[in-house]
Design brief:
It contains eight helices and no strands. Helix 5 packs antiparallel against helix 6 and helix 6 packs antiparallel against helix 8. With 162 residues, it is mostly helical. Helix content is 78%, strand content 0%. It has one domain: TspO/MBR protein (Ferritin, Up-down Bundle).
């Protein structure tokens, strides 16, 4: 039973990274931005992130179960950093309206996800592979973030975001 409780803790921690999205909504500011035609529809983001957050939580739990607390300190430390960077992107982009700064944040997030995969793999290959779709989605999100920033950086509302 304690293993299931630990899984629940990892899932809660993972989904907690999405909490800023409740406060910092896209809203009118985002709607009026010039966005590329290849941007997915808004309704797609919530289901994709739901699956990804569930996988992120499961991944962390698998590493803890496999390595134990002492053996998982470094991998779970890197894991925690990527969760914090994940949580930081939304307030930067949607809260501060700073797509340029959000590009920096998402590049750091991408690197942290890759580092998590690298440190997870020797401990539990399945845990590492569970993060591959997350890395792929964040790669796409980074391209989208960069495109939005480039398309809108000359607009007065984004002058401070260069």
């Amino acid at each position: 039973m304690s293993s299931l409780l630990l899984l629940a803790v990892f899932e809660v921690a993972s989904f907690a990274a999405a909490a800023p999205g409740v406060i910092f909504r896209p809203g009118a500011w985002y709607q009026q931005l010039d966005k590329p035609r290849w941007r997915p529809p808004d309704w797609l983001f919530a289901p994709v992130w739901t699956v990804l957050y569930a996988s992120i939580g499961l991944s962390g739990w698998l590493v803890l179960i496999e390595a134990g607390i002492a053996g998982a300190v470094l991998p779970l430390g890197v894991y925690a950093v990527q969760l914090l960077l994940n949580a930081a992107w939304t307030p930067i982009f949607f809260g501060l309206h700073r797509p340029g700064l959000a590009v920096v944040a998402i590049v750091l997030l991408w690197a942290a996800i890759l580092a998590t995969i690298i440190v997870f793999y020797p401990v539990n290959a399945v845990a590492a592979l569970l993060l591959a779709p997350y890395l792929a989605w964040v790669s796409f999100a980074a391209a989208l973030n960069m495109s939005i920033w480039r398309r809108n950086r000359s607009k007065p509302m984004l002058q401070g975001a260069r």
